[in-house]
Amino acid sequence: MDFAAPVTLENDFVRLEPLALAHAEDLALATAGLEDRWYTSVPSAEGVPAEIARRRALHDAGAMNPFAIVRLDTGRAVGMTTFCDIDQANRTVEIGYTWLSPEVHGTAVNPSAKRLLLGHAFEQCDAIRVQFCTHFHNRQSRTAIERLGAKLDGILRNDRIGPDGAFRDTVVYSILPHEWPAVRNGLDARLDKRR
Questions:
Q1: Helix, strand, coil fractions of the chain, as percent rounded to 5
Q2: What is the domain-level CATH number for residue 34?
Q3: Total of domains in the chain
């Protein structure tokens, strides 16, 4: 299966739906409390529709597969995530451009979403590498990626220029197919504790 193919993924905690303007109202509410996160790109409440349109345009170009993250217990969208940096020919993909409402930080939402995306990438799309990238200063994201079991590939220094003109060092992690069973078991064990 193609990484960019529209798909809905669901487990006991979340549903990942193709991102659409219908999610805009929930996602605008979900941005509350994220305004001071200078090291990541979360849209403002007013900017959510434009960000949805931007991600949809990248999907139409085959460069991204964007999802809304919907909590099953409330039915509300609480964040966004994507398959990005899609290289179908080489069967590699990045999971990124993820942000979540502060109300779900530390809950089953993020590990559930990652479980679904990684399972789809390795088991349906036959990925040979799934990558994660984050800002060097985004300690919360780095901790979450490392807790998944992803391995540190390295740090790309001065990799990007931020909106404020500051240089970004990007920390790169990956999971390979032979590592997926252990990562899967770790995620399943974490989620079993939350049932």
A1: 35, 30, 35
A2: 3.40.630.30
A3: 1
Give pLDDT tens digits for 21-49. 999 999 999 998 877 766 677 888 999 99
Per-residue pLDDT at 37: 64
Name the average pLDDT for the chain. Answer: 94
Q: Domain of 18?
A: 9-192
**Per-residue confidence (pLDDT) for residue 140, from 0 to 100:** 87
**What DSSP string describes 86-124?**
EETTTTEEEEEEEEE-GGGTTSSHHHHHHHHHHHIIIII
Amino acid at 70: V
> What pTM does this model have?
0.94
Q: Position 171: which residue type?
A: V
| Nearest by Cα to 132 from 168, 98, 100, 96 | 96
**pLDDT at position 34, please?**
77
Measured CA to CA in angstroms, residue 23 lies from 20, 26, 91 at distances of: 6, 6, 29
The pLDDT of residue 15 is above 90: yes
Taking the CB of residue 71, how many other CB atoms lie within 10 A of it?
Answer: 21
The number of residues in the chain equals: 195
Q: How far is CA 60 from CA 6, 33, 103, 169, 191, in A?
A: 11, 31, 31, 29, 33
